Amino acid sequence: MHDSPTQPASLALMYHRMGSPLRRSLVRGQYVTAGCLRSHLRTLAALGYRPTTLAEARRAPGCFALTFDDGYASVGEVAWPILQAAGVTCTMFVVVDAIGGTNAWDVARGDCVERLADAAALRALAAAGMEIGCHTLTHARLPECSEAQLRAEIVDAKHRLEDLLGRAVPGFSYPYGAWDPRVRDAVIAAGYAYATATQLGPLTPDVDPFTLPRLNVRWNTVGWLMRRKVARAYREGAR
């Protein structure tokens, strides 16, 4: 079914921004065009994967789940219509204190300003079937936080997002993929059901639900490059 799997497994893909790269962006590779996204869906289907939610992909083999970090407005505006037309859902992890604002954590280091989805957009996307997860309060590097900061970033952010959406928020994503045992324990204690990291690998039945691996999708991850990344995920998972 797959290029070179060692066992039946599923995959989680990590995206950030949709659209053409801005010329002055420091993270041009994070931009994925509409055509590129459609190509990903075709490749995954050709490899035999079926779309599902991230929660289901953790338990069922042969699935793929799409995730988007940071909460960019372009996810709802560009990606979501494509996914809906294809019968595919996704999870978007949002920075709660930045809802309706911009990517201040990137701008602070010289990157271009990008709009983030506002509260009304998030409610509409959730109502349409997109899962909204938490990506902390301020996009902080969690291992560097004090206990009080950690609570605000993980617990307070969860409560605020749930109040905004009017529903439970089961998923969490570590900014920068940065976590340690203290951070992981805090996420579990806060009542999340799972958390995503950034290491490459497949979703297997024995994977830690609080450090879920993902494939980092870039602007050029199309065709054979997507197939190669899938194969690499299986190799990493076998180590």
Labels describing this entry:
239 residues, alpha/beta, TIM Barrel, six-stranded parallel β-sheet, two-stranded parallel ribbon, 36% helix, 15% strand, globular
Distance between the termini: 21 Å
Radius of gyration: 17 Å
Q: Structural class per helix/strand content?
A: alpha/beta
Beta-strand percent range? 5-15%
Overall pLDDT metric:
92
The dominant shape is globular
Question: Sheet bearing the most strands, described?
Answer: 6 strands, parallel
Helix content: 25-40%
The CATH class is: Alpha Beta
Number of domains: 1
Topology as a string of helices (H) and strands (E): EEEHEHEHEHHEHEHEEH
The CATH topology comes to: TIM Barrel
Q: CATH H-level name... which superfamily?
A: Glycoside hydrolase/deacetylase
Number of strands: 10
The second-level CATH architecture is Alpha-Beta Barrel
Describe the protein's architecture and organization:
- The protein is an alpha/beta fold and 239 residues long.
- The protein has a single domain, classed as TIM Barrel.
- Helix content is 36%, strand content 15%.
- The protein is built from 8 helices and 10 strands.
- The strands form 3 sheets. Strands 1, 4, 5, 6, 7 and 10 form a 6-stranded parallel beta sheet that branches.
- Helix 3 (73-86) links the parallel strand 5 (63-70) and strand 6.
- Helix 1 packs parallel to helix 3.
- The radius of gyration is 17 Å and the shape is globular.
- Mean pLDDT is 92; it is low at 1-7.
